[in-house]
Amino acid sequence: LSMNRIFSGVQPTGNLHLGNYLGAIRNWVRLQSDYECLFCVVDQHAITVWQDPATLRHAIREVTAGLLAAGLDPKKNVLFNQSTVPAHAQLAWVCNCVARMGWLNRMTQFKEKAGKNRENASVGLFAYPNLMAADILIYKATHVPVGEDQKQHLELTRDIAQKFNNDYGVDFFPLTEPLILGEATRVMSLRDGSKKMSKSDESDFSRINMTDTADTIAQKLKKAKTDPEPLPETVEGLDGRPEAANLVGIYAALADLTRAEVLARVGGQPFSAFKNELTDLAVSVLQPINTEMARLMADPGAIDAVLRDGAERANAIAQPILADIYDIVGL
Ligand code: ADP
Ligand code: NA
Predict the structure, then answer these.
(1) Which of 8, 70, 100, 197 sits a CA distance of 20 to 30 A from 32?
(2) Across the 331 residues of the chain, what is the mean pLDDT of every consecutive 10-residue run?
(3) Residue 60 and residue 76: Cα distance in Å, rounded?
(4) 58-85: b or e for each residue (b if 16 or more CB lie within 10 Å)?
(5) Residues 6+ apart with CB under 8 A from 228
(6) Where along the chain do its domains lie?
(7) Which pLDDT value is given to residue 3?
(8) For ligand 1, atom 13, which residue shows the shortest CA distance?
């Protein structure tokens, strides 16, 4: 696999959760030694929905602490905050002019987030995928490790890259590929098997946060929705059982096993027993991250220093690429 450069991001809104960890962050940690990687706290995406300024500022540091605590090494990667690299927003304007209204109208995440009140959604929320395309293309990133929920946005990024290349008769932007890795690429809500686990879900019982205590994790898993049957013996037995499939997928990802291997072990168990095992496993993975996050948050100056260094390195890559883009476009 020829991967030249990896980019990915996470929003500083609310708590990092198990979906962020298993769908994205853990994979970033695994890629960091072998590839050139840029990992970004995307604060400009966060403000597509109103954020309390002090809370947002705190969340930028907390998410950065979460990434560091999960094992991202700021020496091996460029770790930075989006708004400190102005070229993202500058290229986003060009992307706004390349992308078509019809393409954006098809984005399912906008429909979900805007809900019934589309007329009252911010223009930023609608144009969000163009900023995401700019985040990626400003580094000419070839691969983007994300959860399944971002697949459609990655397709839009490729469409924008391709149209730009065609419109200007250049072979400039790569056609970026998503990297959707592991057994938990779409972790679902613990309360509703049809919704993904998300920071923006109002119910705290819908997700396991990376900062939850052992007791909270136990309570949330105890309350997690399931069906009355015991766990199946085979992966096929998970068909039509979204809650069971979700919990088994989470277990598999946390234990670094396949779903089949997990079911070979726990098939036939009632959920009550399985939930206890899953609690112990989740606590054993999350507790050390949690402890390290708290240690890092005690020294915000050190977190800010990491972000400043990352911004300098990210700007150094982005600025010459932006200059080339402006040159191509005639700006
Ligand atoms: P959220 O929807 O919780 O605000 P972000 O938009 O900040 O999450 O996404 C950060 C990363 O986490 C992305 O790569 C996204 O694909 C991944 N991710 C978010 N939610 C999930 C989930 N429920 N399952 C798997 N991956 C997820
Ligand atoms: Na690296």
Answers:
(1) 197
(2) 85 93 96 96 97 97 98 97 98 98 97 92 98 98 96 98 98 96 94 91 94 96 96 97 96 96 97 97 97 96 98 98 98 97
(3) 20
(4) ebbbbbbbbbbbbebebeebbbbbbbbb
(5) none
(6) 6-179+302-329, 204-294
(7) 67
(8) 146
Q: Could you tell me which CATH number the domain at 204-294 has? A: 1.10.240.10
Q: What is the pTM of this model?
A: 0.95
ipTM score of complex:
0.96
Q: Which of 13, 15, 20, 22 to mutate to test the pocket of ligand 1 (most atoms within 8 A of CB)?
A: 20
Element (H, E) at 286: helix 271-297
| CA 75, chain centre distance (Å) | 21
Let me know if 196 is a catalytic residue. Answer: yes
Statement: 6-179+302-329 belongs to CATH 3.40.50.620: yes
Residue 197 near ligand 1, beta carbon < 6 Å: yes
Q: Is 223 a known active-site residue?
A: no
| Single-letter residue type at 287 | Q
Residue 149 beta carbon below 6 angstroms from any ligand 1 atom: yes
Tell which atom from ligand 1 comes closest to the C-alpha of 20: 12
Choose among 152, 166, 157: nearest CA to 135: 157
Nearest to 286 by CA among 9, 7, 19, 43: 19
Nearest atom in ligand 1 to 11's CA: 7
Q: Is any atom of ligand 1 closer than 6 Å to the C-beta of 290?
A: no
Local structure of 204: helix, strand or coil: helix
CB-based contact 49:125 (threshold 8 Å): yes
Question: CB of 198 closer than 6 A to ligand 1?
Answer: yes
- Mark the residues whose beta carbon lies below 5 A from ion ligand 2: 32, 37, 76
Burial 195-219 (b: 16+ CB within 10 A, else e): ebbbbebeeebbbbbbbbeeeebbe
